[in-house]
Amino acid sequence: MGLLDEGRTPHGGALHDLRATPATVHWGYFSASLAPALRVASGDIIRAEAVTHHAGDAPELMMDDGVRAIFDGVPVEDRNPGVHIMTGPIHVEGARPGDMLEVRYLQMTPRLRYGSNLAANWGHLYREFDERERVTIYKVDEGSQTATAAFAYDFPGKYTTPGTITHARDCCRVPALPGVRIPVRPHLGTAGVAPDVAGRVSSIPPGAHGGNIDNWRIGAGATMFYPVQVDGALFSIGDPHISQGDGEISGTAIEASLDVVFQVFVRRDFAFPSPLLRTPRHWMTHGFDEDLNQAMRNASLEMLRLLTEQHGLSRDDAYSLMSVAADFAVTQVVDGRQGVHARICHAVFPPKEG
Protein backbone atom coordinates (compact mmCIF):
# COMPACT_ATOMS: atom_id res chain seq x y z
CA MET A 1 0.00 0.00 0.00
CA GLY A 2 1.42 3.36 -1.02
CA LEU A 3 0.70 6.89 0.11
CA LEU A 4 -1.83 7.48 -2.66
CA ASP A 5 -3.83 4.42 -1.52
CA GLU A 6 -4.22 5.55 2.09
CA GLY A 7 -7.97 6.00 1.77
CA ARG A 8 -8.37 2.27 1.11
CA THR A 9 -6.98 1.19 4.48
CA PRO A 10 -9.72 -0.67 6.38
CA HIS A 11 -10.99 0.93 9.57
CA GLY A 12 -10.86 -0.90 12.87
CA GLY A 13 -8.90 -1.04 16.07
CA ALA A 14 -9.70 -0.42 19.71
CA LEU A 15 -11.43 2.73 20.97
CA HIS A 16 -9.74 4.83 23.68
CA ASP A 17 -10.84 7.87 25.66
CA LEU A 18 -8.35 10.55 26.68
CA ARG A 19 -9.76 13.29 28.90
CA ALA A 20 -7.84 16.50 29.39
CA THR A 21 -6.85 16.81 33.06
CA PRO A 22 -3.88 18.36 34.87
CA ALA A 23 -2.25 14.91 34.70
CA THR A 24 -2.80 14.37 30.96
CA VAL A 25 -1.86 17.78 29.56
CA HIS A 26 1.44 19.59 29.06
CA TRP A 27 1.14 23.34 28.74
CA GLY A 28 3.24 25.15 26.17
CA TYR A 29 5.58 22.48 24.85
CA PHE A 30 6.38 19.16 23.21
CA SER A 31 8.93 16.88 24.86
CA ALA A 32 10.46 13.52 24.03
CA SER A 33 10.92 12.82 27.75
CA LEU A 34 7.24 13.01 28.72
CA ALA A 35 5.59 9.85 30.03
CA PRO A 36 2.70 8.80 27.78
CA ALA A 37 -0.79 9.78 28.86
CA LEU A 38 -2.12 6.93 26.70
CA ARG A 39 -0.73 3.92 24.81
CA VAL A 40 -2.43 2.72 21.63
CA ALA A 41 -1.80 0.40 18.71
CA SER A 42 -1.68 1.29 15.03
CA GLY A 43 -5.27 1.45 13.77
CA ASP A 44 -6.76 2.43 17.12
CA ILE A 45 -9.30 5.25 17.49
CA ILE A 46 -8.97 7.91 20.17
CA ARG A 47 -11.59 10.25 21.58
CA ALA A 48 -9.67 13.11 23.15
CA GLU A 49 -10.38 16.50 24.66
CA ALA A 50 -8.52 19.56 23.35
CA VAL A 51 -8.76 22.58 25.65
CA THR A 52 -8.12 26.18 24.61
CA HIS A 53 -5.67 28.25 26.61
CA HIS A 54 -7.96 31.25 25.91
CA ALA A 55 -10.87 29.93 27.99
CA GLY A 56 -10.02 32.65 30.53
CA ASP A 57 -11.07 35.36 28.06
CA ALA A 58 -14.69 34.66 29.08
CA PRO A 59 -14.51 32.13 31.92
CA GLU A 60 -18.24 32.24 32.63
CA LEU A 61 -18.89 31.08 29.05
CA MET A 62 -15.78 29.09 28.06
CA MET A 63 -15.02 27.12 31.21
CA ASP A 64 -16.69 24.09 32.76
CA ASP A 65 -15.44 22.12 35.76
CA GLY A 66 -12.95 20.13 33.69
CA VAL A 67 -11.44 23.22 32.06
CA ARG A 68 -11.22 25.02 35.40
CA ALA A 69 -9.39 22.06 36.89
CA ILE A 70 -6.63 22.43 34.29
CA PHE A 71 -6.29 26.19 34.82
CA ASP A 72 -6.20 25.63 38.58
CA GLY A 73 -3.99 22.54 38.47
CA VAL A 74 -1.18 23.60 36.14
CA PRO A 75 0.97 26.29 37.80
CA VAL A 76 1.65 29.44 35.78
CA GLU A 77 5.39 28.79 36.08
CA ASP A 78 4.92 25.42 34.33
CA ARG A 79 3.24 26.97 31.26
CA ASN A 80 6.29 27.40 29.05
CA PRO A 81 8.06 28.02 26.77
CA GLY A 82 4.95 28.17 24.55
CA VAL A 83 1.30 28.88 25.30
CA HIS A 84 -0.90 25.99 24.15
CA ILE A 85 -2.54 23.36 26.34
CA MET A 86 -1.53 20.04 24.75
CA THR A 87 -3.37 16.79 25.51
CA GLY A 88 -1.11 13.74 25.50
CA PRO A 89 1.32 12.51 24.58
CA ILE A 90 -0.02 9.35 22.97
CA HIS A 91 2.47 6.50 22.52
CA VAL A 92 1.73 4.54 19.33
CA GLU A 93 3.09 1.01 19.54
CA GLY A 94 5.74 0.21 16.96
CA ALA A 95 6.26 3.77 15.74
CA ARG A 96 9.94 4.59 15.37
CA PRO A 97 12.07 7.30 13.78
CA GLY A 98 11.81 7.18 10.00
CA ASP A 99 8.17 6.07 10.04
CA MET A 100 5.22 8.32 9.23
CA LEU A 101 2.33 8.73 11.65
CA GLU A 102 -0.94 8.92 9.73
CA VAL A 103 -3.67 10.68 11.71
CA ARG A 104 -7.18 10.58 10.33
CA TYR A 105 -9.30 13.28 11.95
CA LEU A 106 -12.81 11.87 12.08
CA GLN A 107 -14.84 14.30 14.17
CA MET A 108 -14.40 17.67 15.92
CA THR A 109 -17.18 18.99 18.12
CA PRO A 110 -17.21 22.25 20.15
CA ARG A 111 -17.16 21.47 23.86
CA LEU A 112 -18.95 24.71 24.72
CA ARG A 113 -20.81 27.18 22.52
CA TYR A 114 -18.38 30.08 22.87
CA GLY A 115 -14.95 31.02 21.58
CA SER A 116 -12.55 33.96 21.75
CA ASN A 117 -10.51 35.96 19.26
CA LEU A 118 -7.72 38.15 20.63
CA ALA A 119 -6.25 41.01 18.62
CA ALA A 120 -2.93 40.44 20.33
CA ASN A 121 0.43 42.11 20.77
CA TRP A 122 1.88 39.51 18.39
CA GLY A 123 -0.75 40.31 15.73
CA HIS A 124 0.37 41.55 12.34
CA LEU A 125 -1.17 45.04 12.65
CA TYR A 126 -0.66 45.62 16.37
CA ARG A 127 0.98 49.03 15.90
CA GLU A 128 -1.80 50.22 13.61
CA PHE A 129 -4.20 49.80 16.53
CA ASP A 130 -2.08 51.91 18.90
CA GLU A 131 -0.81 48.76 20.60
CA ARG A 132 -4.27 48.10 22.01
CA GLU A 133 -5.50 44.54 22.43
CA ARG A 134 -9.15 43.59 21.99
CA VAL A 135 -11.04 40.41 22.79
CA THR A 136 -14.10 39.44 20.73
CA ILE A 137 -16.27 36.64 22.09
CA TYR A 138 -18.20 34.56 19.55
CA LYS A 139 -21.22 32.31 20.06
CA VAL A 140 -21.81 29.20 17.95
CA ASP A 141 -25.22 28.54 16.42
CA GLU A 142 -25.33 24.77 16.10
CA GLY A 143 -28.29 24.82 13.71
CA SER A 144 -26.69 27.04 11.07
CA GLN A 145 -23.11 26.08 11.94
CA THR A 146 -22.13 29.73 12.08
CA ALA A 147 -20.63 31.96 14.75
CA THR A 148 -21.73 35.48 15.65
CA ALA A 149 -19.99 38.03 17.85
CA ALA A 150 -21.60 38.16 21.31
CA PHE A 151 -19.56 41.12 22.59
CA ALA A 152 -16.07 42.61 22.66
CA TYR A 153 -13.89 44.35 25.23
CA ASP A 154 -10.44 45.90 25.41
CA PHE A 155 -7.99 43.67 27.23
CA PRO A 156 -6.59 45.46 30.30
CA GLY A 157 -2.87 45.94 29.69
CA LYS A 158 -0.83 43.49 27.65
CA TYR A 159 -1.64 39.80 27.25
CA THR A 160 1.55 38.00 28.29
CA THR A 161 0.62 35.13 30.65
CA PRO A 162 -0.77 31.96 29.03
CA GLY A 163 -4.21 31.24 30.46
CA THR A 164 -4.87 34.70 31.83
CA ILE A 165 -8.38 34.86 33.32
CA THR A 166 -10.24 38.10 32.61
CA HIS A 167 -13.57 39.07 34.13
CA ALA A 168 -15.00 41.65 31.75
CA ARG A 169 -17.59 43.65 33.63
CA ASP A 170 -20.79 44.48 31.79
CA CYS A 171 -19.71 48.11 31.66
CA CYS A 172 -16.66 47.17 29.58
CA ARG A 173 -18.47 45.11 26.96
CA VAL A 174 -19.39 46.61 23.60
CA PRO A 175 -21.33 45.21 20.63
CA ALA A 176 -19.30 43.79 17.75
CA LEU A 177 -19.87 42.74 14.14
CA PRO A 178 -23.67 43.26 14.04
CA GLY A 179 -25.36 40.88 11.61
CA VAL A 180 -22.12 39.16 10.59
CA ARG A 181 -22.04 35.33 10.51
CA ILE A 182 -18.81 33.34 10.28
CA PRO A 183 -18.86 29.73 9.00
CA VAL A 184 -17.87 27.30 11.74
CA ARG A 185 -15.02 25.01 10.68
CA PRO A 186 -13.56 23.31 13.77
CA HIS A 187 -9.90 22.35 13.50
CA LEU A 188 -6.70 21.95 15.48
CA GLY A 189 -4.21 24.78 15.32
CA THR A 190 -1.50 22.69 16.98
CA ALA A 191 -0.83 18.95 16.86
CA GLY A 192 2.21 16.82 16.26
CA VAL A 193 4.77 14.32 17.38
CA ALA A 194 7.59 14.91 19.85
CA PRO A 195 10.76 16.33 18.24
CA ASP A 196 14.00 14.45 18.85
CA VAL A 197 15.39 17.29 20.95
CA ALA A 198 16.46 17.38 24.59
CA GLY A 199 14.17 19.33 26.89
CA ARG A 200 11.05 21.28 26.07
CA VAL A 201 10.26 22.46 22.54
CA SER A 202 7.90 25.44 22.37
CA SER A 203 4.40 24.77 21.08
CA ILE A 204 4.37 28.10 19.22
CA PRO A 205 6.49 27.60 16.08
CA PRO A 206 5.51 24.99 13.49
CA GLY A 207 8.15 22.59 12.22
CA ALA A 208 8.88 19.15 10.81
CA HIS A 209 7.16 17.58 13.83
CA GLY A 210 3.93 19.48 13.13
CA GLY A 211 3.24 21.90 15.95
CA ASN A 212 1.42 25.18 15.50
CA ILE A 213 0.66 24.90 11.78
CA ASP A 214 -2.65 26.82 12.03
CA ASN A 215 -4.09 25.45 8.79
CA TRP A 216 -7.87 25.56 9.21
CA ARG A 217 -8.25 22.55 6.91
CA ILE A 218 -6.89 20.22 9.61
CA GLY A 219 -10.41 19.31 10.66
CA ALA A 220 -12.84 16.42 10.38
CA GLY A 221 -12.34 14.51 7.13
CA ALA A 222 -8.68 15.47 6.82
CA THR A 223 -5.66 13.21 7.17
CA MET A 224 -2.28 14.42 8.37
CA PHE A 225 1.04 12.64 7.97
CA TYR A 226 3.73 13.51 10.54
CA PRO A 227 7.34 12.25 10.29
CA VAL A 228 8.03 10.24 13.47
CA GLN A 229 11.13 11.43 15.33
CA VAL A 230 11.15 9.39 18.56
CA ASP A 231 10.03 5.90 19.55
CA GLY A 232 6.27 5.75 20.03
CA ALA A 233 5.79 9.05 18.13
CA LEU A 234 4.42 10.73 21.33
CA PHE A 235 1.57 12.51 19.56
CA SER A 236 -0.28 15.42 21.21
CA ILE A 237 -3.16 17.71 20.24
CA GLY A 238 -4.08 21.24 21.30
CA ASP A 239 -4.87 24.83 20.28
CA PRO A 240 -8.44 23.99 19.19
CA HIS A 241 -10.27 26.50 16.98
CA ILE A 242 -13.80 26.81 15.66
CA SER A 243 -12.86 29.10 12.78
CA GLN A 244 -9.87 30.88 11.27
CA GLY A 245 -8.88 32.57 8.05
CA ASP A 246 -5.62 32.05 6.20
CA GLY A 247 -3.12 34.39 7.82
CA GLU A 248 -4.61 34.45 11.36
CA ILE A 249 -3.69 38.09 11.07
CA SER A 250 -4.89 39.53 14.41
CA GLY A 251 -2.98 36.94 16.44
CA THR A 252 -5.50 34.18 17.12
CA ALA A 253 -8.37 32.28 15.53
CA ILE A 254 -11.71 31.82 17.28
CA GLU A 255 -10.17 29.82 20.11
CA ALA A 256 -12.58 27.25 21.59
CA SER A 257 -12.26 23.83 23.22
CA LEU A 258 -13.08 20.78 21.06
CA ASP A 259 -13.80 17.11 21.53
CA VAL A 260 -11.78 15.31 18.85
CA VAL A 261 -12.03 11.79 17.42
CA PHE A 262 -9.11 10.51 15.36
CA GLN A 263 -7.46 7.31 14.21
CA VAL A 264 -3.72 6.65 14.04
CA PHE A 265 -1.66 4.41 11.77
CA VAL A 266 2.05 3.71 11.61
CA ARG A 267 3.22 3.92 7.99
CA ARG A 268 6.51 2.51 6.69
CA ASP A 269 5.71 2.40 2.98
CA PHE A 270 6.70 6.00 2.27
CA ALA A 271 8.61 8.88 3.83
CA PHE A 272 8.14 12.63 3.76
CA PRO A 273 10.23 15.20 5.63
CA SER A 274 7.47 17.58 6.73
CA PRO A 275 3.80 17.54 7.76
CA LEU A 276 1.64 16.54 4.81
CA LEU A 277 -2.12 17.09 4.60
CA ARG A 278 -4.72 15.26 2.56
CA THR A 279 -8.27 16.61 2.44
CA PRO A 280 -11.16 15.15 0.45
CA ARG A 281 -10.25 17.47 -2.43
CA HIS A 282 -6.57 18.38 -2.11
CA TRP A 283 -3.04 17.45 -1.20
CA MET A 284 -1.24 20.17 0.77
CA THR A 285 2.39 20.68 1.64
CA HIS A 286 3.70 23.18 4.15
CA GLY A 287 6.71 25.45 4.35
CA PHE A 288 7.91 27.30 7.46
CA ASP A 289 10.51 29.97 8.09
CA GLU A 290 10.98 33.29 9.86
CA ASP A 291 11.19 34.79 6.35
CA LEU A 292 7.92 34.46 4.42
CA ASN A 293 9.77 34.24 1.10
CA GLN A 294 11.76 31.26 2.38
CA ALA A 295 8.58 29.67 3.74
CA MET A 296 7.13 29.98 0.23
CA ARG A 297 10.23 28.35 -1.25
CA ASN A 298 10.07 25.51 1.28
CA ALA A 299 6.39 24.82 0.53
CA SER A 300 7.22 24.83 -3.18
CA LEU A 301 10.07 22.34 -2.76
CA GLU A 302 7.85 20.06 -0.69
CA MET A 303 5.12 20.15 -3.37
CA LEU A 304 7.77 19.37 -5.98
CA ARG A 305 8.81 16.39 -3.87
CA LEU A 306 5.22 15.18 -3.54
CA LEU A 307 4.57 15.39 -7.26
CA THR A 308 7.79 13.64 -8.28
CA GLU A 309 8.09 10.98 -5.57
CA GLN A 310 4.42 10.12 -5.03
CA HIS A 311 2.79 10.98 -8.36
CA GLY A 312 5.69 9.94 -10.58
CA LEU A 313 6.06 13.21 -12.49
CA SER A 314 9.36 14.45 -13.85
CA ARG A 315 10.75 17.55 -12.16
CA ASP A 316 10.05 19.64 -15.29
CA ASP A 317 6.46 18.41 -15.54
CA ALA A 318 5.90 18.90 -11.82
CA TYR A 319 7.25 22.46 -11.96
CA SER A 320 4.91 23.34 -14.83
CA LEU A 321 1.93 21.76 -13.05
CA MET A 322 2.67 23.70 -9.88
CA SER A 323 2.54 26.98 -11.77
CA VAL A 324 -0.72 26.30 -13.59
CA ALA A 325 -2.70 24.19 -11.09
CA ALA A 326 -1.31 24.55 -7.56
CA ASP A 327 -2.49 27.28 -5.20
CA PHE A 328 -0.16 28.85 -2.66
CA ALA A 329 -1.42 30.75 0.37
CA VAL A 330 -0.14 32.21 3.61
CA THR A 331 -1.15 29.88 6.44
CA GLN A 332 -0.22 32.26 9.25
CA VAL A 333 2.08 35.25 9.87
CA VAL A 334 1.83 35.57 13.67
CA ASP A 335 3.78 32.68 15.17
CA GLY A 336 7.33 33.95 14.64
CA ARG A 337 8.05 31.13 12.20
CA GLN A 338 5.65 31.94 9.39
CA GLY A 339 3.81 29.43 7.23
CA VAL A 340 2.85 28.93 3.60
CA HIS A 341 0.82 26.02 2.26
CA ALA A 342 0.59 24.72 -1.28
CA ARG A 343 -2.43 22.75 -2.43
CA ILE A 344 -3.21 20.76 -5.53
CA CYS A 345 -6.53 19.13 -6.40
CA HIS A 346 -6.83 15.35 -6.63
CA ALA A 347 -8.95 15.80 -9.76
CA VAL A 348 -6.00 16.90 -11.90
CA PHE A 349 -4.51 13.42 -11.77
CA PRO A 350 -5.75 10.44 -13.78
CA PRO A 351 -7.77 7.92 -11.76
CA LYS A 352 -5.80 4.97 -10.45
CA GLU A 353 -6.45 1.66 -12.13
CA GLY A 354 -8.11 -1.02 -10.02
Automatic annotation (TrEMBL):
Organism from which the protein derives: Acidisphaera rubrifaciens HS-AP3
Superkingdom as given in the UniProt entry: Bacteria
GO molecular function: hydrolase activity, acting on carbon-nitrogen (but not peptide) bonds, in linear amides
Protein's recorded name: Acetamidase/formamidase
Residues passing through the membrane, by range: none
Pfam family, one: FmdA_AmdA
